[in-house]
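Hey, resending since the last one bounced:
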Amino acid sequence: MPSYDDALTLFHEWTETERLRRHGYAVEAAMEHYASMWDEDVELWRMTGLLHDMDYEKHPTTEEHPYVGVEVMREQGYPEEMIEAILGHAPYTGTPRTTRLAQTLFAVDELAGFITAVAYVRPTNLGGMKVKSVTKKLKDKAFAAAVSRDDIRQGAEELGIPLKEHIAHVIAGMQHRAERLGLAAG
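The structure tokens again:
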């Protein structure tokens, strides 16, 4: 299996914008948190979060994303469990999320993006962020309107974790890597 450093190199080759890189890092941070919490393979989970959108900049259509990226990953020897999770994070692929890895990737993807948006409007970014800050913004349909609230709710349900608890876990994971995300308290 390729190493984390291999995955990071691949990610940087395919993902050039800082915005999408930070999203990959945010999802990676949330995946790392859950892997540690559940005693899973932290490196595998980090790489899955990091690479889940690696092809999105160059292939943003539903006909191509995430199919192009997973083909590259297959060619490079990434495990099928990771590839299936990445396919499953995009509901339109029809790939069932049957593993904890796949369910967690789906659950953290949209939420990590939403938490990032909340952090951008706070003077302390992720510093001191509370679940209430996120749940309040979730109710505001105009805020980060492109983020699917249904996917966020469904993700927590698939994990079998109450939404507020799930939000707390994703915040904690992202806070742990806040500096890398450019969201450390000012």
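The mean pLDDT is 97.

Sorry for the duplicate.
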